[in-house]
Each structure stands twice: as C-alpha cells, then as structure tokens.
Amino acid sequence: MDDNLNISDMVVSGGKNAKDRTHRKAIRRITLWGLAVNIGLTIAKFIVGYLAKSQACIADAVHSCSDFLTDIAVLVGIRFWTAPADSDHPHGHQRIEALITMFIGVLLGASAVSMIVKAVKTIGEQPDSAASAWPLLGVALASILCKEILYQCTVMVGHACGSSAVIANAWHHRSDAISSIPVAVVAVAARIWPEITYLDHIAAVIVACLLLHTAWSIAWPCIKELSDQGVSLRELEAIRKIAAGISGVKEVHKLRSRRFGNGILLDMHILVDKNMSVDNGHRICEEATTEIKRKMPIVLDVLTHLEPDESVNLPSEIEKVARGVEGVQGVQSIAVRNLTQEIEVECTILVVPTMTVADGAIIGTRVRDSLLAAHLKIKKAVVHVEPWGR
Fold first, then answer.
1. What is the pTM of this model?
2. Residue 86 phi/psi, 5° resolution?
C-alpha cells in the first residue's frame, strides 16, 4: 500500500514539474520577444524625440525603457518564484513574484513622476514639431501596433501560467501602447497648428499620468498580499459554509486567510462530536479540506484544527446569566446571531412596573456586562427593558 502511494506521489510530482517547465518556457519566450521589441522602440523613440526636441516622445521612450527593465526583472525573477518548496520556504517561493511585480509598479511610478516634473519645468521650450511631425507619427504608430500585439500575447501567457508578474508586464505593454497615442495626436496637431508649442508638454504629462495609473494598479494588489491581507468577509462566509456542509462538522470558527501569490492559504478550527474517535475527526477535516479546494481552486492549502464540540444551550445560559442580576424578574425574546467570527445577542428583560426608567437602564447595563463577561463567546449584547406582568 505504501509503495503505491509513493508511486502516485511521484507521478503527481512529475506532472507538476513538467507543467512548471512548460510555463517557464512560455514565459521566457514571450518575455524575450518583448525585450527585443522594447529595445528597438526605446532606441527609435529616443532618437526621434531628441532630434524633434519632443518631451512627449522622450517620455514615451522612458516608458519603453522601463518596459525593457521589467522584462529583465521577469526573466531573472522567474528562476526564483517557480522554485519548489524547501526547508526555508515550506510554502514555496511565490512571494518573490509579488516582490518582482511590486518592483515593476514602483519603477513605473518613479518614471511617471520624473516625466511630469520634467514636462512642467521645460514648458517654455519650443520643439520643432512641425518639421518632425511625420517621424513622430511613424514611431508612435509603430509603438501602438507592436505593443498592443505584445500585450495580447503576453496577457494570454500570463493567464495560462497563472503569473501575476507576467500579467503586470502585459499591462505595462498596453500602457506603453496607450501612452504613444498622445504622441501621435501631437504629431498630427503640429502639422495643422504649428504655432501651439505647448501641446507636446501637455501630451508628456498625459503620458506620465497614464503611466502613474498603471503603476498603482500593478502595485496595489502586491501591497495587499505582502501585508498579509485576507479575503473578504463574503468569501470567508462562503468557505465556512462549504466546511460546515461536511457530514460530522458541528461548527467552523476562527477562520482566517492570507493571500499567497495567486492563491490563498486558510486556517480554521473544526468542531466535531466530543465522543467521536480522533481518526474519524481527522477524516472529516480531510474531507473539508478536499471539498474547499475542489469548489474554490484559488485555495492553495488549508490548515485545520480539530476540536471537540463543547457547546452549550446558549439561550438557556443567557437566561440564567440575566436572571442572576438583581432586579430582573424575567427574560424573554432571546435572539442569537452567529456571525463568522463572533456571536451577537439581543434579549428583553422584565423588571417591576414601578421601577424608574433610570433604574431600569442601570439593570439593563448590568445584564449586558454580565453576558459579555460570562465566557459564552458573546461579542455584542443588546438588552431591552420592559415592565413585568404586562
């Protein structure tokens, strides 16, 4: 039996390694194509921008140059984030991909700010745009066409391989294509209205703003991942319902999540019948893990903690605690709401009719405080006061 399990594990591991190698080859191939195109466009844009004294074209060249640098970052980084898990990184090296993606976003943002500052400082310069309009238009159209094709091919590879860094690099290509549009507009406008010399600087600022927006959209998801932000409460509730639907599960609580690469890691406590055997309890935990991964492929791993169900009759305990407060004649209308991470209680206590409103409010406060301190896992309690006997 053990031999069969080992052979199965080897087959699965071998298949995964082959898939990883295929993904690495696809990523390297499309990134090398992008590298070659970016080098050519960067040189062409710098030459035309320098000769035409066009801030917009030079800004576009900087954009292409940053594309070139991020291509190198992806080619170098892929060797690390696709490495298998080891003793130092038991969950794998996917966080390195987030760091590479963050680097791309920061580089884009820094380039954008630099271009805005330069465009504003040189607003008084007058480029000979009319004389160089056709070269500007030519290099802009070439950039739009080439970078849009690169975007389509790269984003396809990124989604196929599940790589956020490659998808980020694809959007870098798309933003470069978009940033070439103002350059093309300026080139055409320079032939029609050559006396409007500030159009080039406005176009440079527009290009930089587009680049800044792209930088933020790339960096923000990485910031959330690296700061260990979990998934939304709605997603947590969906996960809890999947686990709670497994036969034998009494309750699921202390459900926590963290983002890791393109997936999430989960940690949860599963309560089962306290008289159940440990073996059956662990089988239930395994079933819950398998079902969660099946219904939510984004879940990479689930750490389950098995606990005996020591639950009590909560409404009965609430009534007992409330009746223990001096001045309470009775308890009615007990409502309990089990939320993902806490329990909320709402109840009505009865007091003697002749009691003042102020004294009734004091008793209500004492009941609330007693419920919160009663070790019933109650996080919020709302107590209403009504006269007894009505």
1. 0.48
2. -140, -175
